[in-house]
Each structure stands twice: as C-alpha cells, then as structure tokens.
C-alpha cells in the first residue's frame, strides 16, 4: 500500500477527524507498561558493533516509528539519512575523528573530559564503520518550498529530540543496538551527504548488533524516586 504524501498545510483551516483508539483494560495497561519498563531497562548505549548485517526493513520500520513523533505545528522538521555505503561511512568516520581529536585535546575543557572518563570514550570512532548502518538525523530549521521560499519551523530542537528518543526505543525493542553520536561541530555531515541549506545535523546513530566482545560502562540509572516529583 502506498503511503500518503504529506504536503505543507500553512494557513489551511482546522479539519478535525474522529479519533477512537481501542481502550485497554486496567490489567492490560499494567501488563504492557511493566513489560515495556522491563525491556527498556536493558537498553544500553553500545560502542562496539558487530559487522554482521541486519535486516534493512527493521531499520526502516524504526525510522517510520520515529517519524510519528509529535512536532511543533505538525511540521515534522526532520530528515533521516540512512547510510550503508562503506565508503561514505569511512569518510564520515575520518571527518568525525578529526573533529574529535581536537575536542579531546583541549576543546572540550577539563570539566567535560572529567565527566566523560567513566564512559571510556576517546577520539577513535570504530562504531562509525563497524555498524552496518548509520542513521544521520538532520533537523530542518525551516521549510523550503518549490519556489525557493522559506517557512519557519517551530520547536525544532524539541521535536527532533523526541523523534530520536522514539527511534532509539524502536531500535532497542526490535533487538538492535544503537549509539547517539554527536561530533562537534557537525557541519561536515551536511556537506558529505549533500543536504540542503535548511538542514542542520543533529546526531549520527550507528545501528547494528553488539560485537561478541562488547562491553559497556558499569553505570547505575537514577531510580524512579530520584527522577519523579509527585504533585497530588
């Protein structure tokens, strides 16, 4: 079935349609929520990826899930560039490592470097070439119409951040590992991938299976009591 094609709706009238989702029972909600909490608690950021191939459709479906995220004025200000070409991945890695070396050699500052040390990160980014796919997420700062005119987008950072969170969730629940990589600055990504002037790189997300010898930092997440404030 062909997916509907979105067109901008600036100035269009409000045309509501019915929304009647199936309402689960309380027991069903409790079971679903507990299972989702359990599964998501196993999610970890992975930096050591297997080179084994993954089904592309799984990644495409995860991106489709991300694209259902809410966005300011429903303008959906995101572009997901799926990179599987080894040559392009190598060029991205080389450019990213060049920026990372400058950062780790002093641009980050000691306070930031101190915060990173427990994570075991450095300027070498093998995940950018080992992972079967890279999803490069771009935020559309404004919309470019066919005549070259521009239209402002709203809450772009918030909208794209929510979409990336949903992408990571979908990938994890599909059995894949991922990493949110944000080399700084990231201008080279738009240049390498030929993106238009209204798009700004937001994150690079390697996707694949963890390597057989993969390790992760021995970290503890904040408990629910540490992140929750109840107002009753």
Give a structural overview.
With 232 residues, this protein is of the alpha+beta class. The protein is 38% helix and 14% strand. The chain is built from eight helices and six strands; from the N terminus they run ααβαααβββαβαβα. The strands form two sheets. The protein has a four-stranded antiparallel beta sheet. Strands 3-4 form a two-stranded antiparallel ribbon. Strand 3 and strand 4 (150-152) form a beta hairpin. 25% of the residues are buried.
Task: Summarize this structure as a short list of keywords or feature phrases.
232 residues; alpha+beta; four-stranded antiparallel sheet; two-stranded antiparallel ribbon; globular; Nitroreductase; Nitroreductase/BluB; flavoprotein
Apparent shape: globular
Number of strands: 6
Cα gyration radius (Å): 20 Å
Tell me the strand order in the biggest sheet: 1-2-6-5
Q: How many alpha or pi helices?
A: 8
State the separation between the terminal residues, measured CA to CA. Answer: 47 Å
Structural class, please? Answer: alpha+beta
Summarize the structure.
This is Nitroreductase. With 232 residues, this protein is an alpha+beta fold.
Fold topology:
Elements: H1 26-40, H2 56-66, E1 78-83, H3 86-107, H4 110-116, H5 127-130, E2 133-140, E3 142-144, E4 150-152, H6 156-173, E5 177-178, H7 187-192, E6 199-208, H8 224-227
Antiparallel strand pairs: 1-2, 2-6, 3-4, 5-6
Helix pairs in contact: 2-6
